[in-house]
Amino acid sequence: MRFALLRSGFMEAKNSRDANYHLINSCSFIREAQEETVDTVFHAIEEKKDNIKKVGLIGCFAERFPKALKEEIPEIDFSVGTGNFDKIPTILAQKYGIELEQHAAIKWADLQNKEDSYLPYSHFRIATGCSRSCEFCILPSIRGSLTKLDIPQMEKSWQDEKELRNQREIKEVILVSQDTISQGVEELEKIIEYYSNKEEIKWIRLQYLFPDKRVLKLLDLYERYPKLVSYLDIPFQHVSQNILKDMNRPYDKELFVEIIDKARSIRPNIEVRTSFIVGFPSESENDFIQLRDFISKNNIEKIALFRYSHEEGTSAAIRVDDVNDELKVSRINELRDFHLQNRSTNRNSLIDNIETMLVDTVNDLEIITRRQQDSPEIDEVVFIDKPHTKSDVVAGDFVKVKINQPMEYDYMGEIVEK
Length: 418
Hints:
Blueprint: H1 2-7, E1 21-26, H2 31-50, E2 54-59, H3 60-64, H4 66-72, E3 78-80, H5 88-96, H6 101-112, E4 121-125, E5 127-128, H7 139-143, E6 147-148, H8 151-164, E7 172-176, H9 185-196, E8 203-206, H10 214-218, H11 221-224, E9 231-233, H12 241-247, H13 253-266, E10 271-278, H14 285-297, E11 302-307, H15 325-342, H16 344-349, E12 354-362, E13 366-370, E14 382-385, E15 398-406, E16 411-417
Parallel strand pairs: 1-2, 2-3, 4-7, 7-8, 9-10, 10-11, 14-16
Antiparallel strand pairs: 5-6, 12-13, 12-15, 13-14, 15-16
Helix pairs in contact: 14-15
């Protein structure tokens, strides 16, 4: 969406008050996301009263609740669903009489010279939608069934991104979809090989692996493709057999353990990220304790915790939401605190380690670097005090960093070699 707008001559405003068009990228996956979307919309409408501007809602919320949007928030000027975000420049031009051709060439030239808007990594979608039927999930209704992207489509995405960056190098690619493993191991290998053959790319990261048996075969690729980073992102969602059956998820906890063990046998330095839904209907204290035991026994490095959200349109909506919100929050807090305590041994073992890291950003005060075991924007970073650093580095450099001190999640460190 950003690429399409910039390429068509639109410029990014410094803040929403200065914008002519306030575009809100929405989510409706869980209740908290819906509430945040609505709050953001009403904040934009308040700003709109003081300025002549248009407010547009983009994405999942607009796709899921189009009728309610028109009836209950008529102040929204336009909405665009999940499949048409790249057509927004044309939609705006037609709706508001904008002559795009008069702006694009000059503004695009200005954009090409902006150095501060280019990160050394980029996300690339390799499929859309999901054909599974997890009871708690509304996503297939919003995104549709799984549709794989082919190599020519990926090449177009690559060229678009390179054009936006004015051919600046991309050092890390993050391959995303709603259900990555369902594309099949053979197809995934073709995708990994495609990106591995691009010399500028040094790190390739897979996200969102559904925990089925094909992951065991996929892990063999980590022996053949060294650019795959030592990172396993695999949402288990729960480990209690009873809860997983009710969720209509794979419920073989031993398979989960087998996947983790095989990953660590192939890459001893690999770190595991997973997610758990807490408070699914009928979740007992024993079910909850199983989560805690699994984290401890398998030394899970990174977790995301979600409070179960009773969503209309999901299969689980017919169940009685019998775990109250207070208990859900209490269990999440307990699990988070337990995980922080449990992972402290692993974090302390990194002190004084020297590792190759990617420089994400540089400012006057600090250099922000990242280990290959950490995905950008969601995992830990290593902060380096720039005024006391002799090395002259820029975003996209790989540097050897000594880890000096852990914080609650992130680290402090120092560059020892460029």
